[in-house]
Write a structure and sequence with these properties.
The protein is globular. A hairpin with a 6-residue loop joins β1 and β2. It contains 17 helices and seven strands. The chain is α+β, with helices and mostly antiparallel strands. It binds iron/sulfur cluster (SF4) (2 copies) and FE2/S2 (inorganic) cluster.
Length: about 350
């Protein structure tokens, strides 16, 4: 069948960029990567993109389709072609483009290296017996271990756009893979390092990385686990950590967020004095509730009971983080165990499919 796509071409040497449209004959099982192969093979040999395995495992073929990062070899095109929509293919975001759909992954690898993605077992000579890891212990880091380092999450990361030095979702998910590893003995050092500036607490929790990760790693959940593990280990000097702690205290004591005290509690008294003028402005406009007497919610007992329950269950650290979704089962199988419609309810990455034109 005929399939069309538009590709943003870019030459970093000349700086020229152009949106070019191609139409190819392709089988109905073709993926985006198959279409690119056909374009390169039969229409324009100068097109540049990365690929290797063609089976969603090497992580080479990350790119954007209609502004959303996808693995090209995972993205079937038949529905899009049938809808009449011509998708726009472009390079991933947050990384400099080298040519066409190829980005410079050096900053990505630098951040991966900076989290020390290797096991630190605390010994140099192996013991006489092998270290047997229980299935339960493996399950803790199962999702994080699925990362194929494609960069799709980094491409969509809002924090990274604002602060290119932010460690980012892929590196932090890799960090959790080792923090959660029962054999690793560098947990505290790792948590300290990941909690520094540009680390765990600089994530804005936009959840785009969870949405775009093609392997179900859910990097934002991994970052939440790191934050919880850091708190559990008493590593809470970062403002983000203090902020989170104050949320808990507020909810427990009044059932509300005690905003008036939020700044002094997280930034310290000296820094908050500098904000007095700003605070007075807010106060004048009725935006700051008076701190005394504290506004206590009518059903604050429910909030306290919830706090007590979590404490009783001893779900400190990563154990207390509820996975946002069952991403793995969502990837391939529906709840009834049947293969899932890749563009149906709950599937992802879900390409942008515009409404079909209404029939005349
Ligand atoms: S976390 Fe997901 S999106 Fe990010 S690099 Fe790993 S596999 Fe790719
Ligand atoms: S949730 Fe955090 S790490 Fe993930 S994309 Fe958003 S800002 Fe980046
Ligand atoms: S070519 Fe390997 S993941 Fe797509």
């Amino acid at each position: 069948m005929k399939m069309a796509l538009k590709i943003w071409r870019f030459d970093s040497v000349s700086g020229e960029r152009a949106l070019k449209e191609y139409e190819v004959d392709a089988p109905d099982w073709a993926t985006l990567l198959d279409l690119l192969d056909i374009v390169k093979d039969r229409h324009d040999g100068t097109l540049a993109y990365r690929k290797s395995c063609r089976m969603m495992i090497c992580g080479s073929c990350g790119m954007r389709m209609d502004g959303a990062a996808v693995l090209a070899c995972k993205t079937r095109m038949v529905d899009i072609a049938e809808s009449g929509h011509v998708p726009v293919i472009s390079a991933m975001g947050n990384m400099p483009i080298v040519k066409d759909l190829v980005v410079d992954m050096n900053p990505f690898w630098g951040k991966i290296r900076s989290v020390q993605p290797w096991l630190q077992p605390g010994y140099t000579e192996p013991g006489e017996k092998e270290y047997v890891v229980s299935q339960e212990d493996v399950d803790v880091i199962h999702k994080e271990s699925l990362c194929v380092m494609c960069g799709c999450c980094v491409s969509e990361c809002n924090s990274m756009e604002a602060d290119p030095e932010f460690l980012g979702p892929a590196a932090l998910a890799k960090g959790m893979r080792f923090v959660g590893d029962a054999r690793d003995r560098a947990t505290v050092e790792r948590l300290q390092s990941y909690s520094e500036e540009h680390g765990i607490w600089d994530c804005t929790r936009c959840y785009f990385c969870n949405e775009r990760c093609p392997k179900g790693v859910d990097p934002r959940d991994a970052i939440a686990k790191l934050g919880a593990e850091a708190m559990k280990a008493g590593i809470d000097s970062d403002m983000g950590a203090k902020h989170a702690k104050w949320f808990v205290t507020s909810a427990k004591t009044t059932g509300w967020l005690r905003e008036t005290e939020l700044v002094p509690k997280t930034q310290g008294v000296v820094k908050s004095l500098k904000e007095v003028k700003f605070a007075m402005g807010l106060f004048k406009h009725g935006k700051v509730p008076p701190p005394v007497p504290p506004h206590v919610a009518k059903h604050v007992s429910e909030s306290r009971a919830l706090y007590d329950l979590v404490k009783q269950q001893d779900r400190g650290g990563a154990d207390g983080i509820v996975q946002s979704e069952k991403a793995l089962s969502r990837l391939e199988l529906a709840a009834d165990g049947e293969p899932r419609d890749p563009y149906g309810e709950g599937s992802f990455p879900k390409p942008f499919l515009p409404e079909k034109e209404p029939a005349e």
